[in-house]
């Protein structure tokens, strides 16, 4: 995404941010469609270089939108869904159901039936008990379904505790160390209405280099060899990091994927083990840096010698990551280009002290009511984690490309808030 000042006004890919905000209102999410496509192509190119059979599915939880899914289809991406709702959204788009993978550590019977009837490519199994449930439902529907098993490799990724998933004490996957993973594979192999296709792991999110994944691949291939299990698919999940601020490292997609695929090839060669197809599930790295949020400044509260609170017209209802993970963000003033010389705290308007967007960040000292601010890198896990707390309305979402600007999700209206109330 190119954010730059033209004639003293912030622009995104040459489009004036203030004009877009005036048309669609604030808070507003704006995505750079070209960047989304470019990220998909970078993963494709890196995997094509490896010469391996591969597939990439976009982790739809990062940002669920029908227009986005249509772009994913155009960019040859499959989809990873974890709920009836995500699957339903996917089915409204051009995505082919046979490229959808159904995840989840507590799939309901209804979800399993819905996924089978929709024709998803495979289930990612997360527990022993779900195997017999899926087998029974598949037998009732008189069909055989594909499944891969999510294993817990016991590898700790260096990231925030709440988005770490590969450590032993985790609700996700079946542990190799405790023998649950092999028990799961045997159960899958013995289930007549399930076709066991391979294994899956996801060691965490916002991982900035390939070491953890490489160690996990080595461990998993050796384990499969020792257990005499062959697989068609090795799904290594997502988790590729993005830059929220200048201090963050963006995952080196080309080098990282090369290291990962070379490791897979050499491990398979070492054990004379048949090379599986490699699958990836990137979410954040596809949409994260391609999205920004635009807010309007309201109250500015200067507490002498203490802090300056700048409150904006959204908050934790559309931006929960600062409150939840103490995540850090960079902001820009939209309607003029001035030096960021003042330390301020950007607060949301919701009724909670923890409703902060950015603590002790730098902005021009002239910022006042009516100014517009941009928060960078909000494309992943912002809209999708938004809520109606304090009866806030979910913002509208706009895609810009070089050629055009289009609204892809409309702002909620007050009527939406009470649509389900029984009066
Ligand atoms: N595959 C699996 C099995 C996952 O659990 C996840 C993310 C992904 C793929 C995609 O990971 P990504 O490439 O987006 O990092 N709400 C948190 C992130 C939770 C991630 C959950 N699983 C956040 O805002 O940072």
From TrEMBL:
GO terms of molecular function: diaminopimelate decarboxylase activity
N6-(pyridoxal phosphate)lysine modification, residue list: 61
Requisite cofactors: pyridoxal 5'-phosphate
Keyword annotations from UniProtKB, A to Z: Amino-acid biosynthesis, Decarboxylase, Lyase, Lysine biosynthesis, Pyridoxal phosphate
Residues noted as binding substrate in the record, renumbered to the chain: 284, 321, 325, 352, 381
Domain Orn/DAP/Arg decarboxylase 2 N-terminal as annotated: residue spans: 35-287
Pathway assigned in UniProt: Amino-acid biosynthesis; L-lysine biosynthesis via DAP pathway; L-lysine from DL-2,6-diaminopimelate: step 1/1
EC number: 4.1.1.20
SUPFAM superfamilies (UniProt xref): Alanine racemase C-terminal domain-like (SSF50621), PLP-binding barrel (SSF51419)
Catalytic reactions of this protein: meso-2,6-diaminopimelate + H(+) = L-lysine + CO2
Binding site for pyridoxal 5'-phosphate: 239, 281-284, 381
Stated family: Belongs to the Orn/Lys/Arg decarboxylase class-II family. LysA subfamily.
Subunit details: Homodimer.
Role this protein plays: Specifically catalyzes the decarboxylation of meso-diaminopimelate (meso-DAP) to L-lysine.
Name of this protein: Diaminopimelate decarboxylase
Source organism of the structure: Macrococcus armenti
